[in-house]
TrEMBL record:
Originating species: Penicillium frequentans
Protein name listed in UniProt: Methyltransferase domain-containing protein
SUPFAM superfamilies per the UniProt record, alphabetical: S-adenosyl-L-methionine-dependent methyltransferases
Database matches in Pfam families: Methyltransf_23
Length: 252
């Protein structure tokens, strides 16, 4: 986004400190901030786009998040939310020979433990927040929901899909502990050692699997343009067109 829109002002927020990776890259139009989206948003200028990704199980009250996003978008601005979650039955594992689902008991245990911890905390680990009804209840319109299936691993033959699969595999393997350690040790009764051991076993299963895919659901929606805003926009376009016509004729 920084490269595609160099004149834009981009705010990147997370709960944790950006202690590695892109947080240390010099991006003059990106402002990295520590913020909790569940707290009151304090931005002073409205956004053209609010993007939320990978926060399944993060919030008790998604409606509040959508209400705040609605309030901080300009009229006509868009929100985009994308999620895929191992605990939300979004991962499918099969053999290379299409023999059907292979046995992945540790992955199932991992997903089940995350779902249980989500139920205890009141932060569901699923994709129910990515429904049209959730956005329309906050006032959004032009709501679109799509689902895409992407590869995990190096099994695709197509070079683009293989590259995507490699990136997804790295993200999955490196993200297992990040997703699980706190909920498993705090809510699901695991010791730290047991939680790490489970993650290691899931890594082994993933690396041994023949073919893995995952579903991602993406929702986009717009804050409606009010009648007054539409009227002002039409007037502004008409005024600009009249000025161009006058200048074209040489009229002053």
């Amino acid at each position: 986004m920084s490269a595609e829109y160099p004149n834009a002002t981009i705010v990147a927020c997370d709960l944790g400190i950006f202690d590695s990776g892109i947080g240390h890259i010099s991006l003059p139009n990106v402002d990295f901030q520590l913020a909790d989206a569940q707290s009151q948003w304090t931005y002073h200028e409205p956004f053209d786009l609010i993007h939320i990704r990978g926060l399944s199980g993060a919030f008790r009250d998604w409606h509040s998040i959508y209400q705040q996003a609605f309030a901080h978008l300009r009229p006509g601005g868009y929100i985009e939310i994308a999620d895929t979650d191992p605990a939300g039955d979004t991962i499918a594992v099969t053999t290379n020979s299409d023999e059907g689902n292979i046995n992945t008991p540790n992955l199932r245990t991992y997903a089940s433990a995350l779902r249980a911890s989500g139920e205890i905390s009141g932060c569901p680990r699923d994709l129910q927040h990515l429904r049209k009804e959730s956005l329309s209840a906050a006032g959004f319109d032009n709501i679109n929901v799509i689902e895409e299936t992407f590869p995990i691993g190096l099994w695709p033959e197509d070079i683009h899909d293989k590259t995507l699969g490699k990136m997804a595999l790295i993200a999955l393997l490196e993200g297992l502990e990040a997703h699980a350690l706190r909920p498993l040790t705090k809510l699901a009764g695991y010791t730290l050692e047991a939680a790490k051991e489970l993650c290691e076993k899931v890594q082994e299963e993933v690396l041994a699997a023949g073919k893995i895919t995952a579903r991602v659901r993406i929702v986009t929606a717009r804050r409606p343009i009010s009648f007054e805003q539409r009227r002002d926009d039409v007037f502004a376009r008409a005024t600009a067109r009249a000025r161009i016509l006058r200048e074209g004729r040489g009229d002053l």
